Amino acid sequence: MERVKLEKINFAPYNPRIMSKEIYEKLKKSIIEFGFVEPLIVNKRNMQVVGGNQRLKGLKDLGVEEAEVVYVDLNDE
After folding, report:
1. Residue 41, class by beta-carbon neighbours within 10 Å (0-12 exposed, 13-18 middle, 19+ buried)?
2. What is the pTM of this model?
3. Contact 36, 64 (CB under 8 A)
C-alpha cells in the first residue's frame, strides 16, 4: 500500500456501480465516522481506479487529499 494524492487518481470510465444519493451519503458518513478502512485499487499503468470509484468520489467530496491505494498492473484489455 502507498499513500497517494487523490488528484493523481483517475475515475474508471467503465464504472458499473450506480449508487443512490441516499447510499452515497451513508458512504460519506461512514468514512467520517470510521475513517477510510478499505484502500482504493488503482491500475499503475494509467492511474485509473479498478476498485473504489464511489469511495474516491466520497473522499474528494469530503476534501480528503490523500488515501491509501493498492496498485495492480493491468493492460487495457
Report:
1. middle
2. 0.87
3. yes
Grid cell listed for 37:
478502512
For 55, residues 6+ apart whose C-beta sits below 8 A from its C-beta are 27, 31, 36, 38, 40
Q: Which amino acid makes up residue 72?
A: V
Cα–Cα distance between 41 and 52 in angstroms, integer? 7
Tens digit of each residue's pLDDT, the chain (77 residues): 899 999 999 998 887 678 899 999 999 999 999 988 899 999 999 999 999 999 999 999 999 999 999 999 998 77
User: Distance between CA 3 and CA 36 in Å, rounded?
Assistant: 12
